[in-house]
Amino acid sequence: MITNRVRRDRSRAKRLNFVLSQRLTDFYLLDAAGETVFSGTLDEVEAWLEARTPLRAPGPTPDPVPELWQPWINLFVAEQKAAKRTPRTIQTRCAHLGTFARRHPDLSPLEVTRTDLIYYFGGNEDWKPRTFHAVQSTFRLFFRLLAQEGHRRDDPARSLPTVRIPRSLPRPCPDEVVTKALESITDTKVRLAIRLAAETGMRRVELARAKPIDVEGSRGDYRIHVIGKGGHERIVPISDELADQLLAIRTEYVFPTRVRAGWTSANAPMSAKRLGDLITEALPGGWTAHTLRHRFGTVAYQATGDIRAVQELLGHASPTTTAIYTKITDDAMRRAANATRLDSNRCPREASIAVPADNKVSCSPD
């Protein structure tokens, strides 16, 4: 509800030493002197705040991590930073450890057993397989570090049961949905975001970080330089038309935070969540920004049949992941099945199937 949004935004503004004021449908952020530093709609104010404050999960602030765990989690953070893990990855993994630690405040990580972990995972039946897999990965890294550093003689997480992630089907956004959205949208930035996502397969966070200077090359050979998960870089070819639109932008980021003219920080990037929400709102039928990435992978694979090329374009570490993004058409599956059919002239329906003594089945021609 709108009241809850305003209450949340007031708290976020307070953390930045601002006061959020409302007049009818307009909102104002005031500094300590009462001067207006930013004004706009609630959506615009939220986008401005999101770009300047770290988001946290809804609900009450978690209790502090128990003292028995804090020094070992600090060691884990240092290890993760040394491995050049992203701040978001480190934050997520610390949250995994913190949740377990709060449930076992009197249990030192040096005393945790495999049985403790088994009961912990077994007691979270509402977790999805991907969550199980992610949390187990965190615990394996954490306890392996303690063992390697000589703080433990064993690794209780080393032989945890393997969690299989069910195979999921790709969900590419249909071209007619993309076309309809592009024809009906009046916001040029949202239209560009949809085109860029559909024609490059970029993730939400990659779209939000995109800059005009990322466009390289010349006419007929334009490409965009993308920095993806874990800082991995890739190059994606783009059309001259799309390149012209990107190069014509005069802000630092392709999708800056929506601010009023005159605000000196107008070049701050829009948050990935906000940009993704704008794309989702523009796509009819409940399609999302991520389904545009599926659309890119599917169309690219159908055009080339080269899974390795699509893997590189999407920035995946493994072609197995790429396969999730490439939907096989019904026609392709029918052609594959038809290719296995026996020739009726060689093996007619009434022909007998001879079973020799060695139990090898063969088709007996007339």
UniProtKB/TrEMBL annotation:
Record's keyword terms, sorted: DNA recombination, DNA-binding
Pfam assignment, any one: Phage_integrase
Domain of life according to the entry: Bacteria
Entries under PROSITE patterns matching the protein: TYR_RECOMBINASE
Domain Tyr recombinase: 168-338
GO biological process, one term: DNA integration
GO molecular-function terms, A-Z: DNA binding
Family of this protein: Belongs to the 'phage' integrase family.
Name of this protein: Integrase
Species this chain originates from: Mycobacterium intracellulare
